[in-house]
Amino acid sequence: MTRKKKLAWVSLMTFVFLTAAVPAAFGMHIMEGYLSPVYCVAWGVICIPFLALGIRSIKKSLEEDRRNITLLAMAGAFIFVISSLKIPSVTGSCSHMTGTGLGAILFGPTAVSILGIIVLLFQALLLAHGGITTLGANTFSMAIAGPLLSYLIYRICKKGNVNRTFSVFLAAFLGDIFTYCVTSLQLAIAYPSAEGGIGASAVKFLGVFAPTQLPLAIIEGILTVIIVIALETYAKPELKAIGFMKEAA
């Protein structure tokens, strides 16, 4: 690893530890105890196949080239950092960036499911951000649904010869928005409206999230583009190892 790469890595990790100290008040995805046991178990079971595929994907990536662990760690740190910066939005949840679009673009959506659940577990235990009982629901929305859409958007843009920088931005932006659409649906299923049921409740949750989440999604898209540009400058061998630089060419 060159001196520039070491400096960039140290700077990133320093930023991680500094931002990890943000106050925990109101800092939650879906907070501990907010979902009934039935929904907690159901969302956890739904996540199992994706997590199994994620373990397989990461194992294959590391077998192909051990240097991929550097980019995997960086993608995980990126998720941890920006998803820890939260803005109170609605009882039982909050608005924040997700950071999962970057990993989905580089390694695919299934690998991000593992990175995401690790981040969510650490945040629940160390920052009171989320919860253990709601880990399945939070994993599905942030580490499975969002990354899957980001990956699909990026691949569609690539096949359509869309500008790559714009493709990265759009993938990260829409992945972030979709995460909160799924979160709103999860909350609506758990707490349907007395008038209008799940649909009306989902609209209400989306309406509360939108004012804070839309600008955050735009910021996430911009940050993801900046990170990709930085990686192309300082981590070309690693990007070539996963085939990203070849795609860029």
Strand content: under 5%
- Number of alpha- plus pi-helical segments: 10
Average the pLDDT over all residues and give the rounded result: 83
Q: Please identify the structural class as seen in this structure.
A: mainly alpha
Please provide a written account of the structure.
One of its GO terms (biological process) is cobalamin biosynthetic process. Forms an energy-coupling factor (ECF) transporter complex composed of an ATP-binding protein (A component, CbiO), a transmembrane protein (T component, CbiQ) and 2 possible substrate-capture proteins (S components, CbiM and CbiN) of unknown stoichimetry. InterPro entries: CbiM, CbiM/NikMN. By secondary structure, this protein is mostly helical. It has a single domain, classed as Orthogonal Bundle (Arp2/3 complex 21 kDa subunit ARPC3), CATH 1.10.1760. Helix content is 76%, strand content 4%. The chain contains ten helices and two strands; from the N terminus they run H-H-H-E-E-H-H-H-H-H-H-H. It has a two-stranded antiparallel sheet with strand order 1-2. A hairpin with a 2-residue loop joins strand 1 and strand 2. Helix 2 crosses helix 5, helix 2 crosses helix 6 and helix 3 packs antiparallel against helix 4. The longest helix is centred in the C-terminal third of the chain and has 38 residues. It starts with a helix and ends with a helix. About 7% of the residues have low confidence.
